[in-house]
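Review form for a predicted model. The reviewer records the input and the model, then writes brief findings.
Reviewer: anonymous (R2)
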Amino acid sequence: MRFKTTATVVGAKMFKGEVDGQNYDSTTVFTLMDQDESKGTARGFAIADFKFPSSDLFQQLKALKYPIQAELELDQVSNGKTVKTVLVGLKPLGGVNTADGTLSKAG
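Model under review:
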């Protein structure tokens, strides 16, 4: 199931290399996510990470000043038992002013 959502991206990292004979190439994007406050045992935000299957995305993101607002395109896939969410696209929308929370336009 593919869908789009807007998120505050607080950082990104890449890995491209070999570990134990296995090649890896990915970008991990870190976003703010609301905590589940329904039981009264959590408040505020947590960090959720989403993997993109290439370090090419990091090359596009590395010069940005974080945090930013971005439109994420996500794909939820299942093996029949578990569901995972994979990042398939990211479009920066602008930077977030950390003093007042306002959004400046990208570009």
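Findings: The CA atoms of residues 76 and 82 lie 10 Å apart.
Further findings: Strands lie at 2-19, 22-34, 45-52, 68-78, 83-96, 103-105.
Recommendation: see findings above.
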